[in-house]
Amino acid sequence: MARAHGLEADLAINGGPAAVTELESPSRPKVGVEEFLELADLWGFSPQALDAIRAATADEDLGNGPHLTRYYNPRPSKVVAFEQEAAQFLGAKHVLAVHSGTSALETAYVAAGIGPGCEVIVPGYTFFATAAAVVSAKAIPVVAEIDESLTIDPEDVAGKIGPNTKAIVPVHMLGTVCDMEPIMRLAEQHDLFVIEDVAQACGAEYHGKRCGTIGDIGCFSVSTYKYIGAGEAGLVVTDDEWLYTRAQNHHDTGACWRPDRYAKERKPGELFCGTNYRMSELEGAVNLVQFRQAPARLARNRQVYRSVISQLRPHEDIIPQQVRDLDGHVGNTLAFFAPDASHAEALAEAMRAEGVKCHVFAHGGARDWHIYKYWEHILERKSATPEGCPFTCPYYAGPLPEYAEDMCPKTLDLLSRGICVRLGEWWTENDCRQIATAVNKVLDAFHQGIEGADWHDITPDA
């Protein structure tokens, strides 16, 4: 290489003076007070409060400003703190925060090796994401009936296990736990994964164990629409270190989670093409507080539920929702079944007139994506591309499930005559008494009371 007249001696690397000494421009954080004020506005603070916040923070030296992603954060990560809080609350070894309940499901499916050629059994009553994430993982959903608990029916699951079945997905709906003992037995007999969907039952327990920690993997939605959570967030929970490792890879294909992100894989199956489902520090901070509040919130819900049902009178032809573990029930809803759909609508209308917030699950033919008959994406085997994968996958030995709107008649029947009453965690004893009085008033007008029995003494077989 040609040298420029011996000037290399002037280079700083050779002992000469550096050309750049000190830049005059001030250092300003990329994220500063204005972004913080937008958050304060989102919280609903008044203009006067916003002015006060601006005045109090205007002269703060924020340095480089906040780092809003969990990885390589110079400050203690709020997402990590959230994961630790959730692990302690749930009693789990490994908790991975992701950005939604749907991404938690897909991450869990991929971590378990569910993909082309696999079938996954899901209930006919759950939010569509439970089944949609199976298709996103390139597997085939098989839809099973629910029972009077409004959760997956183990007897129907047993009849739908086949040579392609890879997993069962019990969904703990409306704070009520699934019948996990027979589900776990079936999984053991057929060497299947159990992936719990706990989107609507965070904190629920089955025989003293938190839902989401009974099967191989638990998936949680921690969002605005759930009784614990705000914004959009999710959790993948497992005691299995290898499943946790694979879940980490899927949620962050950039491998920021690894000790050496650019190293060769430490074990076959550790590295593969994943995606980016990482949770932001903003969601981590908000939901860290939500989980700190979870035990007290759970206790309030359960107290309200017990107070209401203790005052309800059983009635002929009214079947309460089957709650298999009363102590483990979240308690944010009350559900029961009328003899038929039209009668359920009449009862719900009468209770609303009395001031009770309630609805029939399958009300008036509304297109509710919690009910399988409206999942035309699956019933019609829709795909993002004309090739039709996974329904046309050559690795799938088939035959494909016979999808139809009436394929789970028991599920449709239960939802058509099931009534849901929303309960409030902050209700006083007088509030509980008013709601119980209103429900009893309506049921008394339509049905004969049953003496000498408690609400949950009445079962489908009674």
Keywords:
four-stranded antiparallel beta sheet, seven-stranded mixed beta sheet, 462 residues, Aspartate Aminotransferase, domain 1, alpha/beta, globular, 3 domains, 11% strand, Aspartate Aminotransferase, domain 2
Helix content: 25-40%
Number of domains: 3
For CATH, the homologous superfamily of the largest domain is named as Type I PLP-dependent aspartate aminotransferase-like (Major domain)
Low-pLDDT residue intervals, each spanning 5 or more residues: none
Biggest sheet: strand arrangement: 1-9-8-5-4-2-3
Amino- and carboxy-terminal Cα gap: 95 Å
The CATH architecture of the largest domain can be named as: 3-Layer(aba) Sandwich
Structural class: alpha/beta
Q: How many DSSP E strands? A: 13
State the CATH class of the largest domain: Alpha Beta
Give the amount of beta strand, in percent. Answer: 5-15%
Radius of gyration: 27 Å
Number of helices: 14
CATH fold call of the largest domain = Aspartate Aminotransferase, domain 2
Q: How are helices and strands ordered from N to C?
A: HHHEHEHEHEHEEEEEHHHEEHEHHEH
Describe this structure in words.
The protein is of the alpha/beta class. It has three domains: 30-66, no CATH class; 78-291, Type I PLP-dependent aspartate aminotransferase-like (Major domain) (Aspartate Aminotransferase, domain 2, 3-Layer(aba) Sandwich), CATH 3.40.640.10; 294-369 and 409-457, Aspartate Aminotransferase, domain 1, CATH 3.90.1150. Helix content is 34%, strand content 11%. It contains 14 helices and 13 strands. The protein has helices at residues 33-43, 47-57, 78-90, 101-111, 129-136, 154-160, 180-190, 241-251, 281-292, 294-311, 341-353, 376-379, 409-417, 429-446; strands at 94-98, 119-123, 140-144, 165-168, 193-197, 205-206, 209-210, 217-221, 234-238, 319-320, 333-337, 358-360, 418-422. The strands form three sheets. The chain has a seven-stranded mixed sheet, with helices on both faces. It has a four-stranded antiparallel sheet with strand order 10-11-13-12. The model has no long low-confidence stretch (mean pLDDT 95).
